[in-house]
Amino acid sequence: MKKKSLKILSAALLIGLSGAASAASTSWSFTSTATSSVSASGFASQVAEYSAMTYTNGAGNSVTMNAFANTASNAKIEAAYLNYQGSSGLGVTSRDSSTNDEVTSSGYLNNPQHSFDNQGAVESILFSFSSAFTMEQLDIGWSTNDSDLQLYAYTSSTPFSTSTVLGKDYSTLTGWTKVGDFTGPTDPRLTTNSTYSRYWLVTPGPASDKLDYIKLAGITGSYKPTTPPPSTGVPEPESLALVGVALAGMLLTRRRKLV
Fold first, then answer.
1. d(CA 102, CA 137)
2. What angle in degrees, to the nearest 10, is found between the helix axes of 3-18 and 237-258?
3. Do residues 214 and 140 lie in contact, with contact meaning Cβ atoms separated by under 8 Å?
């Protein structure tokens, strides 16, 4: 065995014994139709609306989205609907008032309220992941005005359910922690986020600014790295096998030198 091969073998041994996993970012694009969706009879008869949309990326990771808005009595949160806006991404349909001024009399969406917005009511999108995840970037496919976004993570020890949102008020949500703000297309990345959660809520904002209109084109983030279990002092079978191969290679090299 040549020295070069032995170096490669030693490197493989070190890699096999290291065990620590690092986080890698993964992304989803919402500029094409969803992998799967749940259709809904919402507010716009001439526009397809969805109570849930799931996107699966090339790595096989999935994210499911639902929409909400504080359009119920006393500005309480109720279900809203997602709508697909082609290459611009996703919008949200909600009932802004008893006359539903987001929708025309013909059943189409009003402009610019065909987007994800906070005019009249504050709309929000809930993102659900298969395991703990940290949001890093929101991609905006279309916007008008300053287009701010606010980001909340569900951090309670109480198991999540939609009851943590439905019937509540945005200002008094319990179990949710505000993580930060995205200041529109000029600053889509939240560089200081180290919070992990399976559930994330995004709203246009702040509430004092009622002119944020956005179509959400994608998201980027990372799953929480897997931490290896504490060492028991007993090598695992895979580690023992690697050690054996490495030692055999070293002995073979030494014997050839002596011959």
1. 28
2. 160
3. yes
